[in-house]
Design goal:
365 residues, alpha/beta, TIM Barrel, eight-stranded parallel beta sheet, two-stranded antiparallel ribbon, 11% strand, Aldolase_TIM, FMN, L-lactate dehydrogenase (NAD+) activity, flavoprotein
C-alpha cells in the first residue's frame, strides 16, 4: 500500500511514469530542447530560502485568499493543461470537481478534452477559459464568443507560444493531436494495458472545444500573427476579467497594464516553449517592483510543493497555479490520487507557514 501512496509531487510523477504509455508520459513531462530551461526553473526555486521564525502564536492559520474579489480556499489553482483526459478518462471533470470544492479557478485549456460548457458546470462556475490566438484569428474569436455564452467570466490569453516549441521527447514518440496510431504507438499501448483498456472503453480523448461548424484546429498552426492590436480587439470583445499568461519581460508587463488587462501571469509555460527563457520565479520580484503592490500578479511554472507556493507568494505573486503534478496524481491513482496530492500541497503550505511565523498568507508589497 505504501508504494502506491502519494506523499509528494515526486511520488505522483514516479507512479505516473510506471502506469502511463511512454508517449503520454513524455508529452506531459517533457520540456523544450535539452530541457535545461526546466532544470533552471527547478534550480531557481530550490535556491530560494524561507525565513524561519520562532515563538510566535501560529496555532490558527488560514490558507484562504481573495481572487478578483471572491474568496478562494487555497492560494493555488489548476493551470490550463491540454488533453488532460490522456492522464486518465474523466480527468477534466475530476479537476473541475476539485475547483468547485475549494472555490479555486480551473484553467480550461483551448485544447481541453472535455467541452468547456461541461467543465464550467461541474466546476460550479469556478473555471477560467484559456485562449490561444491561432491562424488568422477567426476561430479564436469564435471560441471567445462561445466562452462568453457558456458563462465564463475570466479569460486567460496565453501569449508565449507564437510557434509551438520543439519537445524532443514527444517528437521521438510521434505524438500528435489527434492521435495517429502506428506500430510504435501500438506497442507502447500494448505494454501499458491498464491505461489502454480504460481509455479504449471510454473513447479516445479528442480536442472537444473544436466541435464547431467550419472550425478545424491544427495544433502546429502558427500563432505568430497576434499583435498588440489583437489584444486591443480582444479587450473590446471581452466584458469580464482578462488575464495575460506567459509574460517574462517587465516592459511587456507595463505595456499590458496600459492596455487594460486585469492581471498578468508570470510563466515560462513550464519551460515547454523556449528553452533559454529565464526562470519565472526570478522575474517575479522585478515584475512586482515595477507594477507596484496593487496590480494582480499570478505565477506558474515548476511548482511542486506547498513550500514552492509560499516562495512564489513571498516573491510577489497574489495567486499561483499548479499544472502537470496534478495530471501525474490522476494517472497514478485517479481522483483519489488527485485529492491526496491536493491535501499534500495544502499540508506542506500550512506547515511552512507555521515554521515561518505566518498565520495568514503574505501580501505583496
Amino acid at each position: 500500500m505504501s508504494s502506491t501512496a502519494i506523499h509528494s509531487a515526486e511520488d505522483a510523477r514516479r507512479l505516473a511514469k510506471r502506469r502511463l504509455p511512454w508517449m503520454v508520459f513524455d508529452y506531459i513531462d517533457g520540456a523544450a530542447g535539452r530541457e535545461t530551461g526546466a532544470a533552471r526553473n527547478r534550480a531557481a526555486l530550490d535556491a530560494i530560502t524561507l525565513r524561519p521564525r520562532i515563538l510566535r502564536d501560529v496555532s490558527e492559520r488560514s490558507l484562504s485568499t481573495t481572487l478578483f474579489g471572491a474568496e478562494a480556499e487555497r492560494p493555488f489553482g489548476i493551470a490550463p493543461m491540454g488533453m488532460c483526459n490522456l492522464s486518465a478518462p474523466g480527468a477534466d471533470l475530476m479537476l473541475a470537481r476539485l475547483a468547485a470544492r475549494y472555490k479555486i479557478p480551473h484553467g480550461v485549456s483551448t485544447v481541453a478534452s472535455t467541452p468547456m460548457e461541461q467543465i464550467i458546470e461541474t466546476a460550479e462556475g469556478h473555471a477560467w477559459f484559456q485562449l490561444y490566438f491561432s491562424g488568422d484569428g477567426s476561430g479564436t474569436f469564435k471560441l471567445v464568443e462561445r466562452a462568453k455564452s457558456s458563462g465564463y467570466e475570466t479569460l486567460v490569453l496565453t501569449v508565449d507560444v507564437p510557434e509551438v516549441g520543439r519537445r524532443p521527447r514527444e517528437l521521438r514518440h510521434g505524438f500528435t493531436m489527434p492521435f495517429r496510431i502506428g506500430p510504435k504507438q501500438f506497442l507502447d499501448f500494448a505494454v501499458h494495458p491498464r491505461w489502454s483498456l480504460s481509455t479504449l472503453f471510454k473513447g479516445r480523448p479528442t480536442m472537444a472545444n473544436f466541435d464547431m461548424p467550419g472550425f478545424d484546429f491544427d495544433r502546429t498552426e502558427s500563432r505568430a500573427r497576434a499583435t498588440w492590436d489583437t489584444l486591443t480587439r480582444l479587450r473590446d470583445a471581452w466584458p469580464g476579467k482578462l488575464v495575460v499568461k506567459g509574460v517574462l519581460d517587465v516592459e511587456d508587463a507595463q505595456q499590458l497594464v496600459s492596455a487594460g488587462v486585469d492581471a498578468i501571469q508570470v510563466s515560462s509555460h513550464g519551460a515547454r516553449q523556449l528553452e533559454a527563457s529565464p526562470a519565472p520565479i526570478e522575474v517575479l520580484p522585478r515584475m512586482r517592483e515595477a507594477l507596484g503592490p496593487e496590480f494582480p500578479l499570478f505565477y506558474d511554472s515548476g511548482i511542486r510543493s506547498g513550500e514552492d507556493v509560499l516562495k512564489a507568494l513571498s516573491g510577489g505573486a497574489n495567486f499561483t497555479f499548479v499544472g502537470r503534478s496534478l495530471q501525474f496524481a490522476i494517472a497514478a491513482r485517479g481522483e483519489a490520487g488527485l485529492n491526496s496530492l491536493w491535501d499534500v500541497l495544502s499540508s506542506e503550505l500550512d506547515i511552512a507557514m507555521a515554521q515561518t511565523g505566518l498565520t495568514k498568507l503574505p501580501i505583496p508589497s
